[in-house]
Amino acid sequence: MRNKRNILAGLLLLVSSANYRCGGPVEPGETSAAVTSTEVLDVKAAPVQAGEWTVTVSISGSLRSRSVVEVRPEVGGRLLSAGFEEGDFVRQGDLLAEIDPANYTLSVAQAKAVLGVAQAGLGRAQIQVEHARREKERADNLLRSGGITSRDQEALVTGVRDAEAQVRLAEAQVDQARAALAIAEKALKDCRVVAAASGLVQKRYSDPGSLLSAGAPLYMLVDNSQLELECLVPSYRLAEVRTGQQVEFTTPSFGDRVFRGAITAINPMVESDNRSVKISARISNPKGELRSGMYARGAIVIGKEPNALVVPRPALLVESEETNAGSLYVVDKNQARRRQVQIGGIQEDRVWIREGLTPGDLVIVEVGPELKDGSQVRYQSSAPERGR
Which domain holds residue 185? Predict the structure, then answer.
């Protein structure tokens, strides 16, 4: 009986103590709050390892032909033939078109006739100067013997001078006529329009039968064997860029195929609107696969870093291109610790960390919004990134 009383008293004591909390009674319907433990986050982490990194400066721009020739006839007239179509390859010296030469043939004949008249006039002037000189010599003899007066002799001297002037005038007229003939012959020759450079016909402006004026565009020739890539480089990376450095790029037309060239020119001025510098790279294109106007995206190869610390791109939280600063999380004694780092470069899904990490550090490679500095974490191993 006494044991039953003791058990009943113990039960009453438990019920009584359950009705109080922290110095006061619990209101009806309330329950005691359970003490929660610190939440542990599951994360993926990978150890940092050193590897080779190719130091680059990202670029993008357009390809353009180094040789673009607009063919314009130097004479006007009816276009008789234009033998090349758009896309045809033209070699230097090929006959591109022919203009009706009828009028220019007549001009040559006229210029030849004018030259003949001038030459005849020169011949007559030369005969006259010879006659005037003989008359002067006879007058000189007569003057010594007293056969003529000095006034008559002076008149003959003047006649010689006049005849000599007529010869010079006739010679100038002959030269003028020869020049006119040369111009007429050149105009006749220019009726045959030949290619001054090799290239592809990008555009033909006129068809046979058209009446052209001198200087009107006829063909556009483009030589794609040598191209230039024009692009911009941020001014804060300018100190790393040099002429002769290799450029690697891809174009949407050829997918992942990589093309290469070399920097040939760096503009001496920084563009004020975007604080960038224009550079040009020469691209060899012997097969003509690349075309002027294609968009290109790639990088300038600055050098190689043999012992770069590389992490996955998603691990980087904050970055600033102007300062190359960023931050990421590392695992330290099962806690996430935010660490400031200096970025050496970014390539697609990889980041080179120049300062702030050491080999072997565990970097959290997938960062969620709930992750904070000091969070308790439980990590799973992830394959480390390898430098290239």
Answer: 101-190
Q: Looking at the 3D structure of the chain, how many domains does it have?
A: 3
Do 294 and 323 fall within a single domain?
no
For 310, phi and psi rounded to 5 degrees?
-115, 135
- Specify whether the CB–CB gap between 351 and 309 falls below 8 A: no
The residue behind tokens 């960062």 is 367
Same domain, 233 and 276: yes
Distance, CA of 320 to CA of 314 (rounded, Å):
15
User: What CATH number does the domain containing 337 carry?
Assistant: 2.40.420.20
Fill in the DSSP letter of residue 314: G
Residues 6+ apart with CB under 8 A from 102: none
Q: What is the pLDDT of residues 297-321, one digit of tens each?
A: 999 998 888 889 999 888 888 655 5
Query: 75: which residues sit within 8 A by CB, 6+ positions away?
Result: 99, 104, 187, 190, 191, 214
Domain final position from 190, 213, 246: 190
* Last residue of one domain, picked from the residues 288, 304, 320: 304
Which stretches in the chain have pLDDT values below 70?
1-38, 146-147, 318-323, 382-388
32 and 17 in contact (C-beta within 8 Å)? no
